[in-house]
Design a protein that fits this description.
The protein is built from twelve helices and 17 strands. It has helices at 12-17, 28-31, 33-42, 164-169, 171-176, 196-204, 209-212, 214-219, 226-231, 234-240, 350-375, 390-403, and strands spanning 49-53, 62-68, 71-77, 83-87, 102-104, 108-109, 116-117, 123-125, 144-148, 151-155, 182-192, 250-252, 264-270, 298-304, 308-312, 317-326, 329-339. A hairpin with a 2-residue loop joins strand 9 and strand 10. It folds into two domains: 49-145, Rieske [2Fe-2S] iron-sulphur domain (Rieske Iron-sulfur Protein, 3-layer Sandwich), CATH 2.102.10.10; 162-403, Alpha-Beta Complex (Naphthalene 1,2-dioxygenase Alpha Subunit, Chain A, domain 1). It starts with 11 loop residues before the first helix and ends with a helix. The structure holds FE2/S2 (inorganic) cluster and fe (ii) ion.
């Protein structure tokens, strides 16, 4: 579809300058491979991406792989107990080294000609190489790995944004849910044939929730405008303290304010009165997290950098990671986290746990694909954002600013 899409002759700078404030992006931002390449360089490869939870790689040799655009990273627990990140690219002739998405190894062996790497990425064996070949110069290249209270992030840049501010400022709110000691109860990939920005723009607004998400709209006040939402939140504020939940609001999503740091945010929102959590009947779906003592009828939203968004209910957490595959294909990875000591089948039922966000993500996939089809049309023209698309507007403005950064 996009292969036949012609560039209109304007440079990217001209295109950005002509972008109408408060409107959706020009077609070329979704279809032009040259803009996609710039996004990879300026945005995707410079920012942290959520890769899961530490509980998925507890022991030395436990690993997982994360694929983003053209890159593939191996995250492995080293013999020293630390998490390490490596480019999944063999130093012989460049094959992917690790073809499994997760597992346990003593060493990594390239499937092509058998070169072997230890858990520190050192090349330990390479058959029949010429004399003078220096194994020490052919270790796996490293990828930055970081951790925020149990969440694992990777960045394809040797000088990634600092995580210090996020770790410090989120210690108290994330501590309430004991993020460090959660575990992954379920994980699901949703491949979506659309440009990655359409997925994230869709996640940023709930203007579509009333029409697209009947299940979600029953429970979540996010589908209301701000004023109505405030009015529907009284019951939560009354119950919060008794549940051991503090009312904390953090908005450092804007990276201009704290240059060199990851953008992050935390805030709490009420659900409709009779809903305790995001489950089919609104009742408990897993044991309460951390020291939380009950249900206050609210949930928290968190964000880490431009690709990773979380929703923390009092009894489970849902993590969303949106990443590009190529300019017209993306992946939405969803993780469901529960208490580390919760037992499947006894404390929670996997199908019930994932029900709400599985139906909601399937619906989002459909609307995003339809959005992508329309955006490719010659009749597409950027349209005005509503008052309920404030965050989406901020997001696309951030994208435009990043694309112009040196
Ligand atoms: S490409 Fe890996 S051993 Fe040859
Ligand atoms: Fe949605």
């Amino acid at each position: 579809m996009s292969a036949v899409m012609k560039s209109d002759g304007r440079s990217i700078a001209e295109l950005i300058a002509s972008q109408k404030p408060g409107h959706s992006l020009d077609q070329r931002f979704y279809t032009d491979p040259e803009i996609y390449d710039r996004e990879i360089e300026k945005i995707v490869n410079r920012n942290w991406i959520l890769a899961g939870h530490v509980s998925s790689v507890p022991e030395p040799g436990d690993f997982k792989v994360l694929n983003v655009g053209q890159e593939s990273a191996i995250i492995v627990r080293g013999n020293d107990g630390e998490l390490k990140g490596f480019a999944n690219v063999c130093r012989h002739r460049g094959s992917l080294v690790c073809l499994e998405q997760h597992g346990h190894v003593d060493k990594f062996q390239c499937p092509y000609h058998g070169w072997m790497y230890d858990l520190d990425g050192n090349l330990t064996a390479a058959r029949n190489m010429n004399e003078g070949f220096d194994k020490s110069q052919h270790g796996l290249k490293s990828v930055s790995v970081g951790e925020i209270h149990g969440l694992v992030l990777i960045c394809f840049d040797d000088n990634p944004p600092s995580l210090e501010g996020a770790i410090r400022d989120l210690e108290e709110p994330m501590g309430m849910y004991d993020f460090k000691n959660l575990k992954v109860a379920a994980q699901k990939s949703y491949p979506i044939p659309a440009n990655w920005k359409l997925l994230i723009e869709n996640y940023q607004e709930c203007y579509h929730c009333a029409t697209a998400h009947p299940e979600y709209a029953l429970m979540h006040t996010m589908m209301l405008d701000r004023e109505k939402r405030e009015r529907a939140s009284g019951h939560m504020y009354e119950r919060m303290a008794a549940c051991g939940i503090k009312d904390i609001d953090i908005d450092h999503v804007d990276t201009e304010a704290r240059p060199g740091e990851i953008g992050f945010g935390y805030g709490r929102t009420a659900m409709f009165n009779k809903y305790d959590t995001g489950s089919r009947d609104g009742k408990a779906v897993a044991p309460l997290l951390g020291d939380i003592k009950g249900y206050d009828g609210g949930h928290a939203d968190l964000s880490f950098g431009p690709f990773s968004f979380l929703l923390a209910y009092n009894d489970h957490v849902v993590c969303y990671v949106f990443t590009p595959v190529d300019h017209n294909n993306s992946n939405c990875e969803v993780y469901w986290l529960v208490r580390g000591d919760a037992v499947e089948g006894k404390d929670y039922d996997r199908d019930e746990l994932i029900w709400l966000w599985d139906v909601t993500t399937a619906a989002d996939k459909e609307i995003v694909v339809n959005n992508s089809k329309g955006v490719h049309s010659k009749y597409y023209e950027p349209g005005p954002f509503s008052g309920m698309e404030r965050l989406e507007r901020r997001y696309v403005e951030w994208i435009l600013a990043e694309l112009q950064r040196p």
